C-alpha cells in the first residue's frame, strides 16, 4: 500500500469514527429531548384536567362550566386531545378537536377503560396514538340519586398522534445519517487530493533517488523551500549524498595512490630480479642484489601494513587494551631512542609536566604517533635547525607539540595533510622520500586514544604538530 493510501485510510478511518460517535451522541440526545417534550406536554394536559375534577368524600364532580379549561397545545407535534370518562365508561366530555379515531380507540380498549384499581398514570401506544390516562375516585362513594356532573370515579385520557413525532425522528435519523456520509465522502475526495498534493515531493524525490546510480554522486534531490519536514528530508538526503561522494572520492583516490605507491617497489623488485638473472654473477654481486631486494621488500611490507591499519574499522583499530602511562617518564625514555638519528643533536626536549600526569594508551601506539612527528620534523627541516618536542598541560588536556624550522606547509595543503598518500607539491619537488601514510596513521591513532592531531604552519616559518590527549586521574 502506498504512503498516500495509508495516510488516506488512517485519516478517513479516524474521521469516520469521529463522525459516527458524534452522530450517535447527537441523535440520542436530540431524540430523548423530543420524546421528553412530546410526553411532558401530554402530562401537563393530563395534570390540568385532573386538577379540574373536584374530589369529595362520596363523589367526584366534573363541572366544566364552572372552570375555564384551555389545555390545547399546538406545536410541531400536533394538538393534544383529551376525553373524560365517567361511571360505566361513559364519555363525559372531550376536547372539541378530539378525533373520532381517538374516541373509538378509547371506548374499545379495555386498558383505557381503567378496569384497574390503582390511580397511577398509565402510558401506552396504540396504533398511531400515544395515550396517557389517570383515574380519580371518591374515597367512599355512595351511589344515590346524583346530578349529571357527579360520579364515583372519573378517568381522564389524553392522546396525541405519533405521526408528526415519528416524522421528525425520521428526518433526524436521515440528517444524522446522510450528513455525516456526505461529509465523509467530501473529505475522502478532497483529503486524497490534499494528501497526494502534500506527498507529491516525496514521490518526486523517490523517483529521483531511483534514478541515481551507484557511481553517480553528482545528482541531488530537488526540494522546495517550504521549511517543512519534506524539505528537511531532501536536505538531509543531499548531505548524505555529499558525504557519500566525499567518501567515494577518497576511496578512489586512496586506491589509486595505493596502487601507485605499491607499483614503485614492485617495479624495482622485478627490475632488479631481471637484471640479476641475465647472466651469472659472483657471490658478492648476488649478496648486494639481495640486500637491495630486501630493502625494497621492507618498504613494500611497510606500505602494506599501513594500508591494512588504515583499512580497519574504528572498533577493530581500538582493540588493543589501553593502560595508564605516566607521560613525563615515558617521554624521557622515548627520547633516548632518538639519539641514533642523524639529527639527534638538533632535538630539544621541553617537558613542562608534573610526575603524576597520566594518559590512557599503549607505549607502542603513543610511540608511533610521537616518533612519526619527530622524524617528519627531522626529515623536512634543515640540518642544524632545532626540533623542539614540548609536553604541557592545558585545559585538562595533555599537549605534545613538535616544532620544526622547515619550509612550512601551504595553507591549501593543510586540510588534506592527514589524508592517506597525500604529499605536498613542495615535498615532491624537493625529492624527499615518503609514502604519505605516516600522518594519516598518526591521526587515526590519535582518534583511537580519544584525542586529535592538528597542524599549524606558515610557509618559511616552520610547522607545529600538536597531539591532544585527555588526562586521566
UniProtKB/TrEMBL annotation:
Q: Which Pfam families match?
A: HAMP, HATPase_c, HisKA
Which top EC class is named for this enzyme in its record?
Answer: transferase
Residue intervals of the Histidine kinase domain: 257-473
Which CDD domains does its entry note?
A: HAMP, HisKA
Q: Name the reaction it catalyses.
A: ATP + protein L-histidine = ADP + protein N-phospho-L-histidine
Membrane association type: Multi-pass membrane protein
UniProt entry keywords in alphabetical sequence: Kinase, Membrane, Phosphoprotein, Transferase, Transmembrane, Transmembrane helix, Two-component regulatory system
Q: What is its main location?
A: membrane
Top-level taxonomic group: Bacteria
Q: Got a GO cellular component term for this one?
A: plasma membrane
Q: Where in or outside the cell is it found?
A: Membrane
Listed transmembrane segments: 7-29
Keyword Membrane recorded:
yes
- Enzyme Commission number(s) from the entry: 2.7.13.3
Molecular function in Gene Ontology: phosphorelay sensor kinase activity
List each copy of the HAMP domain by range.
Answer: 196-249
Q: What InterPro entries does the annotation carry?
A: HAMP_dom, HATPase_C_sf, HATPase_dom, His_kinase_dom, HisK_dim/P_dom, HisK_dim/P_sf, Sig_transdc_His_kin-like_C, TCS_sensor_his_kinase
Q: Which Gene3D superfamilies match?
A: 1.10.287.130, 6.10.340.10, Histidine kinase-like ATPase, C-terminal domain
For whether the record's keyword set contains Transferase, the answer is yes
Q: What is this protein called?
A: histidine kinase
In its UniProt entry, the species of origin is given as Aureliella helgolandensis
Q: Which gene encodes it?
A: cusS
Amino acid at each position: 500500500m502506498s504512503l498516500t493510501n495509508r495516510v488516506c485510510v488512517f485519516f478517513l478511518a479516524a474521521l469516520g469514527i469521529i463522525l459516527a460517535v458524534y452522530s450517535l451522541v447527537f441523535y440520542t440526545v436530540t431524540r430523548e429531548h423530543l420524546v421528553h417534550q412530546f410526553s411532558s406536554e401530554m402530562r401537563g394536559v393530563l395534570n390540568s384536567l385532573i386538577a379540574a375534577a373536584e374530589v369529595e368524600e362520596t363523589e367526584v364532580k366534573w363541572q366544566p362550566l364552572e372552570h375555564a379549561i384551555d389545555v390545547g397545545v399546538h406545536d410541531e407535534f400536533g394538538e393534544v386531545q383529551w376525553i373524560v370518562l365517567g361511571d360505566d365508561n361513559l364519555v363525559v366530555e372531550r376536547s372539541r378537536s378530539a378525533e373520532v379515531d381517538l374516541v373509538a380507540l378509547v371506548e374499545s380498549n379495555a386498558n383505557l377503560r381503567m378496569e384497574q384499581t390503582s390511580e397511577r398514570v398509565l402510558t401506552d401506544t396504540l396504533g398511531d396514538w400515544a395515550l396517557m390516562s389517570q383515574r380519580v375516585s371518591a374515597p367512599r362513594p355512595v351511589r344515590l340519586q346524583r346530578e349529571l356532573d357527579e360520579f364515583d370515579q372519573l378517568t381522564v385520557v389524553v392522546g396525541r398522534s405519533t405521526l408528526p413525532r415519528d416524522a421528525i425522528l425520521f428526518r433526524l435519523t436521515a440528517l444524522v445519517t446522510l450528513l455525516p456520509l456526505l461529509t465523509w465522502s467530501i473529505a475522502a475526495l478532497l483529503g486524497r487530493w490534499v494528501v497526494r498534493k502534500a506527498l507529491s515531493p516525496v514521490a518526486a524525490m523517490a523517483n529521483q533517488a531511483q534514478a541515481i546510480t551507484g557511481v553517480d554522486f553528482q545528482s541531488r534531490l530537488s526540494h522546495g523551500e517550504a521549511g517543512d519536514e519534506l524539505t528537511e528530508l531532501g536536505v538531509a538526503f543531499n548531505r548524505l549524498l555529499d558525504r557519500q561522494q566525499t567518501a567515494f572520492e577518497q576511496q578512489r583516490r586512496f586506491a589509486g595512490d595505493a596502487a601507485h605507491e605499491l607499483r614503485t617497489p614492485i617495479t624495482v623488485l622485478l627490475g632488479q630480479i631481471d637484471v640479476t638473472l641475465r647472466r651469472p654473477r659472483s657471490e658478492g654481486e648476488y649478496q648486494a642484489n639481495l640486500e637491495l631486494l630486501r630493502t625494497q621488500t621492507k618498504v613494500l611490507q611497510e606500505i602494506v601494513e599501513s594500508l591494512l591499519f588504515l583499512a580497519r574499522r574504528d572498533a577493530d583499530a581500538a582493540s588493543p587494551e589501553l593502560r595508564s602511562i605516566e607521560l613525563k617518564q615515558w617521554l624521557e625514555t622515548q627520547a633516548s631512542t632518538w639519539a641514533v638519528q642523524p639529527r639527534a643533536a638538533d632535538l630539544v626536549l621541553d617537558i613542562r609536566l608534573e610526575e603524576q600526569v597520566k594518559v590512557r594508551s599503549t607505549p607502542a601506539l603513543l610511540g608511533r604517533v610521537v616518533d612519526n612527528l619527530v622524524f617528519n620534523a627531522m626529515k623536512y627541516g634543515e640540518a642544524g635547525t632545532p626540533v623542539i618536542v614540548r609536553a604541557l598541560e592545558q585545559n585538562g588536556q595533555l599537549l605534545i607539540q613538535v616544532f620544526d624550522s622547515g619550509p612550512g606547509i601551504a595553507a591549501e595543503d593543510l586540510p588534506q595533510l592527514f589524508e592517506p598518500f597525500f604529499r605536498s607539491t613542495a615535498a615532491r619537488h624537493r625529492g624527499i622520500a615518503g609514502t604519505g601514510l605516516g600522518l594519516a596513521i598518526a591521526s587515526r591513532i590519535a582518534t583511537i586514544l580519544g584525542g586529535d592531531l592538528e597542524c599549524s604552519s606558515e610557509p618559511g616559518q616552520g610547522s607545529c604538530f600538536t597531539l591532544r590527549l585527555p588526562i586521566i586521574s
